[in-house]
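Q: I'm writing a short methods note and want an example of a predicted protein-small molecule complex. Could you take the sequence and the SMILES for zinc ion and return the bound structure as tokens? Please keep the output block clean; save any remarks for afterwards.
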Amino acid sequence: MNATTSSAAAGAEPSAGRLQREIMTRYPDNFMLYADMFAMGCLQHLQGEHKAGLKLIDQVRRALPTTGNKTYFADLLEALAGNELRFASEIQAHSEINDLLERAQRQHSSLTYTGRPAPTGLAQVTEVHTRGVQFDCPHCRTQIGGWQADPRGREDTCDRCHQQFYIAPDATVIFD
Ligand SMILES: [Zn+2]
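A: Understood, no commentary inside the block.
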């Protein structure tokens, strides 16, 4: 187990490191189960599925004794928004789940458009759906589709020429 320098002072930034250590001590055999569940909760929360995310995180809270953890957990949840990625990495879940969080974080920030301020009195659309992620193979220019998520920053292999390539993290998103 790693020694973390977390003992700073009460009132410092809440960290999931303490949770990580408690789960590790209490459930050494099932540690990944709880860590992954907590990280998935962070992911859901980051993606705007707040209720579902909190539900997953609450499952982890229930696995710990209330005594001594009530305030800690309340502080953790209060700081969750904006800290999802950090908490998930502190809990040390499987790296695949952390990858999902990083991708979600990138998507979140790349799609945060700072345009004109909202005009008063107009009804607002708060979700924009796009469909059909596609890009061209950089080797043979075959169009590749089928991604259900933001492919930027990932690797893929062309079905036609079987060559591997990388999708640039800052690839432009074009709304056709
Ligand atoms: Zn190709």
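A: Remarks, as requested: The two ends are 50 Å apart (CA to CA). The chain has a mean pLDDT of 84.
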